[in-house]
Amino acid sequence: xxxxxxxxxxxxxxxxxxxxxDPVAGPDxxxxxxxxxxxxxxxxxxxxxxxxDHFPVVPPYxxxxxxxxxxxxxxxxxxxxxxxxxxxxxxxxTGGYAEQAVTPADHLVPxxxxxxxxxxxxxxxxxxxxxxxxxxxxxxxxxxVLVLGASGGMGTLxxxxxxxxxxHVVAVARGKRKTExxxxxxADDVVDGADAEWxxxxxxxxxxxxGPADVVLDGVGGTMGAAAFALVAEGGRFSAHGAPTxxxxxxxxxxxxxxxxxxxxxxxxQLTDAEHVRLAGHALAEAAAGRLRPVxxxxxxxxxxxxxxxxxxxxxxxxxxxxxTRKARRAGDPEPPRPRP
Length: 341
Fold this sequence. Notes:
- There is one protein chain.
- By secondary structure, the chain is α/β, with parallel strands linked by helices.
- It is 28% helix and 25% strand.
- The chain contains ten helices and 15 strands.
- The chain has helices at 41-48, 117-121, 126-137, 153-164, 176-184, 198-208, 222-229, 253-258, 273-288, 305-314; strands spanning 2-6, 15-19, 29-38, 66-74, 86-90, 100-104, 109-110, 144-148, 168-173, 189-192, 213-218, 232-240, 262-265, 296-301, 320-324.
- Strands 3, 4, 5, 6, 7, 14 and 15 form a seven-stranded mixed sheet that branches. The chain has a six-stranded parallel sheet with strand order 10-9-8-11-12-13, sandwiched between helices.
- Helix 3 (126-137) crosses helix 4 (153-164) and helix 3 packs across helix 9 (273-288).
- The longest helix has 16 residues, at 273-288.
- It is globular, with a radius of gyration of 20 Å.
- The N and C termini lie far apart (43 Å).
């Protein structure tokens, strides 16, 4: 089978096409014919050699943890009725950039009728994490929520989910195309993060809506995330879950305690397999019903995984970047489900 292989740690160019033996399902496992593959910023960081303490991968390896496709074969102990079903599955962080992948059967999530595999792949990680963040921070109707990194794969979902919860959304994204997108998705106020005075503009938007942010969802990290901490209200909630800048926001725990701000990090949304399956099913159902729209910025063929990683690192695209073992969507192909007003 065809795969995309990281031959050594380094830049995107180390990700190359290769051939590997077809996988075989063991007991309680299935083999999936992969159609579409989720890609994450953290996968580019792992490939570059960052976060070795957390992701001790050893090249050569096949990256990729979120896949959508059709069950090809099942192993001993697995219900044969899974065969031929459209599914998504989370593999961890390796094995997904391939034409076929093997996974435990209890990781499978059926894809509802009416939802494309490509759209399902775009939700397998970001949809789950976004749903977990909403459960953890629990924004309520009328509360003010600041979303950083609002035009990314997860940010676009957070904007929609927070808006659906009835909260006032102040979204931060960079550039005209991205700010227009997040406004379309339901943001009440939009701030251009490329503006050096973005934090003051965000403060003004929040104050106009009634006061500081009750919730900050920081998908950016670094100095930008740290600056957003000053915008959260006393007794508010701050989630520092994103690090595309290279580091999570560094928040003074003593200052947070003094202001009674509840701090959360990516560690608070590390889920069990069962929780992941539950939240993935919820995200897919919401998308199938038209209430959640995964924004797909670009689809690359599997052989162009290096170009996909370069595009992710360039941070110029809207929404998700996916890999596909088939052709990218063409003009006239069905569009993804769109949210209801």
